[in-house]
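In this section we walk through a basic example: taking a raw amino acid sequence and producing a predicted 3D structure, encoded as discrete structure tokens. The instruction is simple. Fold the sequence below.
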Amino acid sequence: MESVVIWVKPYKPEHHQPDTEGHKGHCGWHGMTSGRGPCRNEPYASVKLQYKNYAPVQSACVQALKEISQRYGFPIPQE
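The resulting token sequence is shown next.
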């Protein structure tokens, strides 16, 4: 199975596991993918992705949501 987006919801800390960037109110997408630490932008959405047998929920700022949309090919809500 290729990586796919399962759902996108408005950001809420309770969508995320304790001790994750998303639960702490940070953009976890940029924190995990760029290696530069937490993103300075506030999370805009919670995004559940499926990777083989792993389905994490990532927090995403507006820019991260655009990047996820481009990578996985799904439409995003208009700002």
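Looking at the output, two observations stand out. DSSP finds three helices and three strands in the chain. Helices lie at 21-24, 28-33, 62-72. In the next section we compare this with other chains.
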